Structure formats: C-alpha cells, structure tokens
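Entry 14. Two folds queued back to back today. First construct below, sequence then structure tokens.
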Amino acid sequence: MNRIAFIAPYTKLATLAREICAETYPDVKVFEGLLDEGLDCAQQIAAEGCQVIISRGGTASLIQENLNLPVVEVKVTGYDILHTLSDLIGKNKTIGVIGYHNVVRGCRAISQMLQIKSLELLTLNSTESPDWQAAQARLHKKLLQTPVDILVGDTLVISKLNLNVPEVRLIVSGAESIYEAIEEARRIARVQTEEKKSSEQLRTILHFIHDGVVAIDDSGNITVMNPAAETIFNSNAAQAIGKSITQFITNSKLPDILISGKAELDQLQSTPSGMIVTSKIPIKVNGKVEGAVATFQETGRIQKTEQKIRLTLHAKGLFAKYSFSDIMAWDYEMKRTIDKARRYALTDGTVLIQAESGCGKELFAQSIHQESSRSSGPFVAVNCSALPPQLLESELFGYVAGAFTGARKEGKPGLVELAHGGTLFLDEIGDMELGLQARLLRVLGERQVMRLGSDHWMPVDIRVIAATHVPLKQKAFEGLFRMDLFYRLNVLTIAIPPLRQRVADIYPLSNYFLSLFAEKYGRTAIELPPEAHDALIRYPWPGNVRELRNTMERLVLTYEETGNSMDILLDFLKELDTDSVRLPAANDLPAPAVIAGHSQSAVSMKAMKHQLAIDTLKACGGNKSKAAKQLGITRYTLDRLLK
C-alpha cells in the first residue's frame, strides 16, 4: 500500500492531483470522496497501511476527527482566492463570503487588494463540528438584510447549505496548494518512518539485551521495563508502566537520581532473586532532570559471561595442551616426581618447580593445570627472563589508557588478569628483577592486581605455578631475590631430576624420539645398537631432554647419508662434548673429567658451567658481550655463571 493517499472532495481537484502525482509523485495514490465518502475511503486505506492522508476542507476535518492518522489539509492559499475573484476587478459586484476562518480572512484580504466589495456572511469555527441548521438560519437572515451578487466558499460549506443567490463560486485549489500539501505529507511520512525505525531498534535492543532496563519519568512512574527486568524483579511490564517504581522495586534508589541528578555506576543491590549490579543515570532535557534510567545485571549472568570470555582465551592459545600422560618416565625417581605433581594438582596451593633447563618445567606446570579444578580456565605462561623489566611489568600487570607513551588508547589487561579463573605460570622466576618482585608479592598474597596508571586494585582468582633453574633459596640469602616472595612461592615444591640422573630414561627416550622424527620426516626408522647405550648415558646432557630430543632429530635427518647410526651418534656426542668431558657412567660414580686442561674428579654441572664461562671469557680477551654471544647466553647469565 502507498504510504501517502490524496482524498479529493471534488472531481476537479482529484483530476489536477492525479496529473501532478503521475508526473512528480508516483508513490501518492489519489482518491475522490466528499465528507462521509471520503471518510469511508480513508478508513479503508488506513487499514491497508497508509501512513498519511491529504484532503481539503471539511473532508479533511472529518477524517482527522475519526482516524488516528496524520492528515495534511490542502490549504486555501491567496493564489486560489485570487484566481477565483480576479475576473470581478472593475465590476460593480458584491460578493458574500462563507466558510472557515482561513477562507474568510483570505477573501477579505484579496478583495480589498482588488477593490472588490465583499461581505462576511458566515464564519465557521474549524475546531468544532458546525450546526448546519443554525448556520443555514444565520445565512438566510443575513442574505435578506444584505443581498449579494456572488457567494464564495469552499466545498463543505457550499455542499451543506441551501444557497439562494444568483451565482455561487467554489474556491478551487491550484497546483501550488497541491504541491505544498504533498511535500508536507512526504516530510511527515519520512519522520514517521525514522521514528518507527528508531522505536523498533530500541524495542529490539530492550527485548533482547541481557541487562534489565527500567526507566522512570520525573514523577517516579515507570515508563520502560524490558523483559530482562521483568524476570529480575518478578514483575509484569504491562502492569508496571505508568505506576510508581516503588510499587514494583521496593528498595529502588532510582528516584534518588531525580533529586541528585548524578549518575551512580556499578552498584551492588539485593533483590528477592539474588544480588545484582546496577547503574543509574539521569535523563536531562535542556539541563533539567526529566527522568532516570537504570540497568540491572544478575551476578550469575556476569559470572557465566566471564566464563565464556575464559573459553575465548582458550581459543587464543591461553590454554594447556599437555598432561601427565605426555610425560614419559621409566626412572623410579622421575615416576615419584610425577606422582607428587599429581597430588599437588588436586590442591590449589602455589607450586614451585625447580629444575635445570630442558627438563620440562612447563610440561609439569601444564599437566598440573590440566588435572586441577581449574582445567577449564586459562593457562597463561610468562617467561620472566625473556623480556626487559619495563616490558615484563606492562605485560604482567597491564595498563590503563595513557599510562605511558605508546600505550594503547583503550588500555590493555595484563597476563595476571587474563589468568583469572585459571593458572598463571611464571617461568624462570629467579630472573625477575627486585622491583617487579614487590608487585608480584601483592598478587600472591592478596590475589589482587593493579594496572599501570590505575589507582585501584582488581581482585583475581588465580593459581600460581613458578619455575626456576637457579637455587632460589640461595639467591634469596644472597639478597638477589626477595626472601618474602621466596616463602610465598615455596609452598608445594617439585624438583625434577636432570636427565643424567635418570639413567633408565635415556635409552627409551632416545628410541622414542628417533621413531617420532622418522615418522615426521618420512625417513627410515633407526634402531640404536646396544653399544650406543653406554655412550648415551656417559654424556652429561646439560640441555637435558631438550638436548636429547634435538640430537635424535639431527641423527634422523643425517642417517641416510652414511647408514651407520652408531658412528653418527658418536660424532654428535663428540661434537657436543667439545671439551672432552667424561661424565658419570651408569653406576652414577663420577669419572675423571678434563675441562679446558683442568683435571677434576666428581665434577658438578655447576662447576663445569662456571669453568666453561671462565675459559670462554679468557678466549674472548675479557670481552663479556663477545663471550656471552659465543656461549649463546645473555650477559646477565654470563655474570651469574662467573660468580
């Protein structure tokens, strides 16, 4: 159905309107009907979805009285009256004017301008339904007193009254009036469409939003209550609209906003159905409070949403992918260590894992997380030695907008926040600088975190697992690590034995890695000869399982060149053992070792690393940067090895 309909009360107007619409306004449909016929037509097209009706005179008034639709009246303009009276210029004719105020005023002004004698015989009030019988009597009386030559009026008046005069002229609307009326109708239709669109958007938002929304006017009466609010307050919107909010929300503080004019955000409120979080803001028009609106969130829904966020973090990689089943062990002590870690997983206490590099500290941390009650939450790993202190601080604790130059304008949550509901794994905790240790202490003790640039603490629910390859207690006694932080971490301890002490694991792990990489690279499967066993267990494996894995991968990739796995393995071990270090054999008894010309017995790994650092530094002429680069370590680590 057309949005706009034109109902003309007489044929000439209908014809002119059709010509104009056919040329300029094809979306406007023209009908013809006077008074009741026009009303019947309007009722029918309104039922079909018409938005705006255009008509004239009494027909327009009748439609407006009986239909709840905007009606645009084709106004009688000065041009229309001028067109009707122009041929009377210079003629000794008296005109009588009958009609509504606008017609009478217009005729008076035009007749004076044209110097035509006019009489106001009958003026009708456009806001009231005329008493036509009384109007007929008044007109008849005036005509007897003052006869006229020509009677001028609009369609309604002329059609309703018995006019006994020589000539009757109908004021006909011209094209200008029709154009003006249609443009006004189109403007109203556009506004209606926009209002309907906005109203439907608001209705959809209020209907589907999870938050409860309640609005009141300046008297405290409810004007809006969405379905979520109905559920929260066990109310019915149809019954609540127009009534005081205190009848439906007994402890509502929303009326207070009408007085204070100030917003209150994120306030906890008790309801019969439980705790909710509410925010209230005033509605101001031209600086005056005309109402208020409040949103309500059920704490249970907030918690569910938070859980979904945690699942999203899983999709971003903040999750554990390894479990205890991925840790292969044949060695008795290693099995005992795994059993201890399994028991720790059932608790929520802080865990400190101590082991040399390459022993699988994160593997244990992920496994503990996977077997804990937090397994569905995020697993966030941080290497404390991989980042400079300033960057590590912002990564750990996050920052608010504008906290420092280069910060994101919207701020950023830290890894501690992202670990909420799950596990925070702090790898190489022993390398964290003292200033950061103080901030971390608050996280461990109070389970609270403050972003950089912020002034308030945020509670976090996390389990902390820390790992280190250095003797943390010794560092604490030396003043290189906070003693209070050490005791916070040293609750549940796990010491993963190095590979050289797990003799039973070396040969099976070697064969496992050989099989793994042969399948990965599509190479021939390799079986180590029995004599390889002694060679493997005599090498110290300072890189532990990581080094063993890399060695077996290298063996698989180069095996087909010679076909002799034992020769290749011995060459690899010889290359790795660049200083001809002889290490403990299978019986764990130390064998003599030569480190850069220095004979030692019972050489410890720490002593070997220390001596290697000294010899490398000497070879580099005392240049620590060059020595660190040659060893593949940082200057900080080199300084530590030299102590």
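Second construct, same run, same settings:
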Amino acid sequence: MSVDDYRPTYAVAAVYDLRANDLLRQGITAVLVDLDNTLIAWDNPDGTPEVRAWLDEMTIADISVVVVSNNTYSRVERAVSRFGVDFIARAMKPFAYGINKAIDRYGFDRDEVIMVGDQLMTDIRASHRAGIKSVLVKPLVTSDAWNTKVNRWRERRVLAKLEEKYGRLVYQKGFNGRIILYRLRYSDPNDKKARGWLYTCCCFGKGN
C-alpha cells in the first residue's frame, strides 16, 4: 500500500465551498458526502443554515447528493431525514462498498462522481479503491466521536508522509477543480547539503 492511496484529488475548507457552477464546469453531477464532521458536526444532528443552503443549491443545479456514512442505518436516517437526502449507511469505508453501492443504486457515471469527506483513512482511501475523485475537507468541529480518534492518530502520520513527499497541503477556500498550491522542498543537485523551498502549482483536474 502506497501513501498515494490516501492522497486527495482536491482539498477545500468545507463542503459548502463546493459551488454548483464550479462542479458542473468540471463535469461533476453527483456528490457523495460523509456525514459526521463533513456535512454536519457529529455532535449537532440538526445541522446549520449553511447545510440547508448548500443542499438547496445542489438541488437547483440538478446535482445529486448522497450521504455515504459508516454509521448505522437508524443513525444516518435520523440525521438526514430533515434534509430529504438519500443515503448509504454502513458504507464500510475505507473499502469501496458504500461508494460502489451508491453509484450502482442511483445509476451515476463514475467519472462524474466526487466523494467529499474529512478523513484520509476512510473517505479518501475508499475513493481511491472505487476509482473516483475525492475532496478532503477540514472537520467541522475539532472534537471527534470516540471511534474516530484512533483514525485521527493514524491520519496524522499519513498526512506527514504525504506532505514529506508532496509538500504542505493547502485547503482552498474556493473550488476550481484543478489547482492546489503546494510548498515543495527541493535540493540543489550540485550540493547535497543545500536546501530550499519551491512553490509550485499542481494540476489534479484529471483522475484521482
């Protein structure tokens, strides 16, 4: 298993930064979204006005939104019922089971689907296994449910390896579907002791 298996295609500050027009320009017609700490805070099942506004924007643009969560059916149903959103419970992330189930159930084109989540170890890994694009977002709240804390510890180690290889990950405020800025460490090829920093733009518009 490579550290690249946990590398997100894009990174934005929050799911609400994914604007409908930007998604459509990138050919995205379906958004699979994690529930806790991505769509809603894990300790606030009522959500926020931003959630409702974002879901309304997706509906108006005819972009499908499906919650893909590892939580139980009753927990997910209770959380999303007030929003009228379809869902897949017990998704078994980091495996591709839940993502594949959503794609098959709703007849999505895999190239037009994106998975949004706040965890490298589950959401992003599952996206790679399913062969779809992914968006890493910051957790809505800094605290986590007990069963997520172990993943966070592992995630910090994986993120450190990703940043060692690719540079510091920058969460974009907006979403253009193509460019993430990385700060990459480089060496002078003529002097092994020399070190410096190079800012570069990396295109991630195609593939995962």
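Quick look at the second one. Residues 167 and 184 are 4 Å apart (CA to CA). DSSP finds six helices and eight strands in the chain.
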